[in-house]
Backbone:
């Protein structure tokens, strides 16, 4: 009975503290610090209620406040996790942008536009894109899946603009698209946890906010080290039943899970590696997949910059003393030179991983 009274007394005191925090709306910074402290309370109920308050827009908190709290170095694992949960709950209730298009097939090198909405008044970008357009980059980021593109769009607010690198047939377009509102979309896919978390991360990064990541088991261990751990003495293939107990990585640029010591889990079936060399080949192949997409996008950027320079030089003939045009030409040439250097480095690395492959064959299939 004494133990129960102690628990009830502690819970009552914590609830009174939360009530006091809820009533005080004049000092949001102090309130958020108090609630973050309660995320480590002994009572699960108090921790849950504190999380809910932090994620409630009616409490007056903003995503930037939660980001600032996450940057603290004195948080434990549960406090950090609960702050992310609160940030997701708050984000889901805030205005988010919509592009006004449907995504078609996922092709190598980008995301294809499938359908466009008819209401271009609410979604002006829909009138600037056509079915079959291949979106290969956005806001300077590489896009390899529709989830990447959705996260990028949702990271913006309605009325903001999204820069997209689009391949339309043989042309490369650099489009600056106005965004509509996600809540006005008809039949929009629900926002999953992973997409919401990624959208929040992109929004914070765009505003110069970097959240330190929690340390994970195996952090800093290279794929080669995993291979060595899986094949310390060339033991040969493992049984498929051991797959779930083996170290795992995910091939960059694909959704295939790679289990070191076993093989690739592809469509629910295990494709075992016969030895260490086979495992290393699979890792090299994963890196080639990643490089092939980056090389393709770099080539599109080279084409884009070269075309832009040509257009600007034509304009400069009519206005030879226009300093603004001369400045744009110099900046475009710098970007072109930088992209060509990066392209050369990626092609060289690809050649080392696959000396028999021709980098010219990396352009994704369009049929």
Residues:
């Amino acid at each position: 009975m004494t133990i129960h009274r102690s628990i009830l007394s502690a819970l009552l005191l914590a609830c009174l503290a939360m009530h006091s925090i809820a009533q005080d709306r004049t000092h949001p910074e102090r309130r958020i610090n108090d609630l973050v402290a309660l995320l480590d309370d002994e009572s699960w109920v108090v921790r849950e209620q504190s999380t809910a308050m932090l994620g409630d827009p009616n409490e007056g908190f903003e995503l930037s406040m939660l980001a600032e709290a996450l940057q603290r170095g004195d948080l434990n694992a549960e406090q950090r996790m609960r702050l992310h949960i609160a940030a997701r709950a708050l984000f889901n209730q805030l205005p988010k942008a919509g592009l006004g298009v449907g995504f078609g097939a996922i092709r190598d090198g980008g995301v294809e536009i499938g359908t466009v909405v008819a209401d271009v008044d609410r979604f002006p970008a829909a009138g600037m894109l056509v079915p079959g357009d291949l979106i290969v980059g956005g806001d300077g980021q590489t896009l390899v899946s529709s989830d990447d593109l959705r996260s990028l769009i949702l990271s913006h607010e309605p009325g903001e603009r999204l820069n997209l690198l689009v391949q339309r047939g043989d042309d490369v377009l650099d489009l600056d698209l106005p965004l509509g509102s996600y809540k006005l979309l008809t039949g929009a896919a629900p926002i999953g946890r992973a997409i919401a978390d990624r959208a929040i991360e992109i929004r914070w990064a765009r505003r110069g906010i970097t959240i330190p990541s929690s340390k994970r088991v195996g952090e800093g261990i290279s794929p080669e080290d995993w291979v060595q751990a899986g094949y310390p003495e060339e033991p040969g293939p493992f049984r498929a039943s051991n797959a779930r107990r083996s170290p795992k990585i995910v091939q960059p640029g694909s959704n295939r899970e790679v289990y070191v010591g076993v093989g690739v889990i592809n469509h629910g079936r295990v494709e075992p590696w016969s030895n260490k060399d086979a495992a290393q080949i699979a890792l090299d192949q994963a890196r080639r997949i990643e490089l092939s997409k980056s090389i393709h996008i770099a080539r599109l950027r080279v084409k884009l910059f070269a075309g832009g320079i040509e257009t600007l030089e034509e304009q400069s003939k009519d206005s030879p003393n226009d300093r603004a045009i001369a400045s744009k030409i110099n900046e475009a040439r710098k970007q072109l030179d930088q992209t060509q250097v990066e392209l050369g480095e990626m092609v060289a690395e690809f050649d080392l991983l696959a000396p028999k492959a021709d980098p010219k064959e990396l352009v994704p299939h369009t049929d």
Q: What stands out?
A: Residues 1-5, 235-268, 355-367 have pLDDT under 50 and may be disordered. The chain is about 45% helix and 15% strand. The first strand starts at residue 97 and ends at 98. The chain has three domains: 2-93, 97-190, 216-367.
